Amino acid sequence: MIKPDGVQRNLIGKIISRLEDKGLKLVAIKFLRLTKEQAAEHYREHAGKEFYERLISLITSAPVVAMVWEGKNAVFIVRKLMGATDPAQADAGSIRGLYGMSMGRNIIHGADSVDSARREISIYFRPEELVSYEKTLETWIYE
Ligand code: DAT
Ligand code: MG
């Protein structure tokens, strides 16, 4: 998900390009403003933490881009492309490393496991909104 700060910073195109250029396949995308309920479900693992209220406030403050990307080890690959949670610690070439300055404005969210990806996808998408298709490029991306 491109968070509100990523959208406001005009980074939608750059972020999508990075995931596309890596070889991941976009299977669903939605531009929306999260409700409090969606935000609470999305970040339920963080409920009660010191930063939770700020996190919910930011993620519901303006529109986001929710996306589903497919590929071999996609969860791991996306986390690598995103970089560490704190942009100050993130690898310099990663999305957070390149574009972020602080933890509370770290541009992008990515699921941290296949289980959380499934759960998060179901918050924003109906199953029929995920598009299954072939890309001819795939033989040049995978052995
Ligand atoms: P990630 O987004 O890398 O999966 P996370 O799940 O630990 O990181 O936390 C979710 C978001 O909450 C994170 O992107 C930014 C915010 N956050 C995490 N730890 C924080 C902290 N110590 N202070 C402020 N915001 C924090
Ligand atoms: Mg997380």
TrEMBL record:
Residues 1-132 form the Nucleoside diphosphate kinase-like domain. It is an enzyme of class 2 (transferase). Its EC number is 2.7.4.6. It is found in: Cytoplasm. GO terms for molecular function: ATP binding; metal ion binding; nucleoside diphosphate kinase activity. Pfam families: NDK. The keyword ATP-binding applies. It catalyses: dZDP + ATP = dZTP + ADP; a ribonucleoside 5'-diphosphate + ATP = a ribonucleoside 5'-triphosphate + ADP; a 2'-deoxyribonucleoside 5'-diphosphate + ATP = a 2'-deoxyribonucleoside 5'-triphosphate + ADP. GO terms for cellular component: cytoplasm. InterPro entries: NDK-like_dom, NDK-like_dom_sf, Nucleoside_diP_kinase. NCBIfam families: PRK00668.1 (NF001908). (Microbial infection) Catalyzes the phosphorylation of dZDP to dZTP, when the bacterium is infected by a phage that produces the substrate for the synthesis of dZTP (2- amino-2'-deoxyadenosine 5'-triphosphate), which is then used by the phage as a DNA polymerase substrate. Major role in the synthesis of nucleoside triphosphates other than ATP. The ATP gamma phosphate is transferred to the NDP beta phosphate via a ping-pong mechanism, using a phosphorylated active-site intermediate. Belongs to the NDK family. This is Nucleoside diphosphate kinase.
